[in-house]
Design goal:
Elements: H1 9-12, E1 13-16, E2 22-23, H2 47-52, H3 57-67, H4 76-83, H5 89-96, H6 98-106, E3 122-126, H7 147-153, H8 159-168, H9 174-182, E4 187-191, H10 199-210, E5 218-223, H11 230-236, E6 241-247, H12 253-258, H13 264-277, E7 283-291, H14 299-306, E8 318-321, H15 335-357, H16 362-381, H17 388-402, H18 407-410
Parallel strand pairs: 1-3, 3-4, 4-5, 5-6, 6-7, 7-8
Antiparallel strand pairs: 1-2
């Protein structure tokens, strides 16, 4: 399969958009149509999916196109990153699932794309848009609490789509479909919104435990870590392992500003709680950071804050390249500013490389550093300083509404 743009997800995973449409993964450009046919949208509750699972006709088509050497439209995000030397999600997960993917390729009809097995290894659920935070880089499609502010600021969004998202996950019979798809799943991933505040999440865990399906299943979360209850810790104890990808965009007041109205003190207490339970509950921790115009000047502060955790988890976050909204992307900053930040970061890396290399998670830390430098290079290469005015106007308007002031951080 040398030279072909293969990815493990179409062989292993079912993933959903916030309103329940099935996609191959959460990184794709066109998402819900699987990038093949504009009429191919179907929901996680689709009868044919519940019967065929990983051999649903649209997933078979997707595998066939990859095997024939094509690059599906929604894979362009990974291709763009790879073209500029970035370690894309496709490459990361090819390494992570290498052995399992090789086995599944051996069970694949290379002409038709059909798999000899139907079962799903990974089920990734974006549980609607219910969230308790109003992150600046987010939208009403992923945070229910942003809808009112978008209306106040006159930012265009589809209320109809938001209502569709909210209605889908409230369906009474939906839980039956999720249980059916989860029966043979090895890893269940939760995205949001904030999964830990979503009613169907708690309901699903309770039923999996009740039906004795939890002990061989791992759970993975993208979470803001503001809601860690004793009840959820008790539920987690019934599962094989827990992986938390914790969102953190800055330190202290900067994180409170970007991920409003979170409280830093509560975040740190929950982080301590997680590390106290880490061994007993088999919890793996990592951090995600949205790479955006707001926090690029303060990345070294974040790296320094995470340093003391080097024996507990990877301490260089996985940096997520922000595509939307366009006026918060890193490329709105002047090239001279980005180059100065890169120079400071390069010096920091040079002075600390041996430390990061020799940490417990050294390989992961260095890989995420490489990703960070790639994103800076991409922001310089695709620079759009003409959008800087929109960045300033949005910032001032939202600051006024929230009674905040971003520019005090720059002092």
């Amino acid at each position: 399969m040398e030279g072909k743009f293969l990815c493990p997800f179409p062989w292993m995973q079912i993933s959903t958009e916030p309103e329940g449409s099935v996609r191959a993964c959460c990184y794709g450009d066109s998402g819900k149509t699987l990038g093949l046919d504009v009429n191919s949208t179907f929901k996680i509750s689709d009868a044919q999916l519940l019967e065929k699972k990983i051999n649903h006709p649209e997933l078979v088509k997707l595998r066939k196109s990859m095997l024939s050497g094509e690059i599906p439209n929604f894979c362009n995000g990974c291709k763009r990153r790879e073209d500029v030397g970035e370690n894309s999600p496709r490459r990361i997960f090819l390494d992570h699932y290498e052995k399992e993917f090789e086995i599944l390729l051996g069970k694949t009809n290379l002409n038709s794309g059909e798999l000899a097995v139907d079962d799903i290894s990974l089920l990734e659920l974006t549980l609607g848009n219910t969230c308790n935070l109003k992150c600046r880089s987010c939208s009403p499609y992923f945070s229910s609490t942003l809808e009112k502010e978008f209306e106040q600021l006159g930012i265009d969004f589809s209320k109809e789509n938001v209502q569709e998202i909210q209605a889908f996950w409230k369906q009474g019979k939906l839980i039956d479909s999720l249980i059916l798809l989860s029966r043979e799943v090895r890893e269940l991933k939760f995205l949001g919104g904030e999964p830990l505040v979503t009613p169907i999440h708690n309901q699903l865990l309770s039923i999996l435990i009740e039906k004795n399906l939890s002990s061989n299943m791992s759970l993975t979360y993208n979470t803001n870590l503001t809601l860690i209850s004793d009840d959820i810790l008790s539920k987690w104890s019934k599962f094989k392992s827990i992986k938390l990808d914790i969102s953190i965009d800055g330190v202290g007041e900067l994180n409170e500003y970007l991920r409003f109205p979170m409280k830093w003190e509560k975040f740190e207490k929950n982080l301590e709680k997680i590390f106290n339970e880490k061994d007993d509950l088999n919890i793996e921790v990592s951090f995600n950071t949205v790479f955006q115009a707001y926090n690029i000047p303060f990345i070294i502060d974040l790296l320094e804050y995470l340093k003391p955790l080097s024996k507990k988890c990877p301490i260089v976050p996985y940096f997520i390249y922000l595509d939307y909204p366009y006026y918060l992307k890193g490329d709105v900053l002047k090239v001279s500013v980005l180059e100065e930040i890169k120079q400071r970061l390069s010096l920091y890396y040079s002075n600390n490389e041996e430390f990061y290399k020799n940490t417990l998670y050294g390989e992961k830390n260095l890989s995420n550093f490489s990703l960070l430098f790639s994103l800076l290079d991409l922001s310089i290469l695709e620079n759009r300083t003409e959008n800087y005015f929109d960045f300033i106007m949005f910032t001032k308007k939202l600051d006024k509404l929230r009674k905040q002031n971003y520019f005090r951080f720059l002092k």
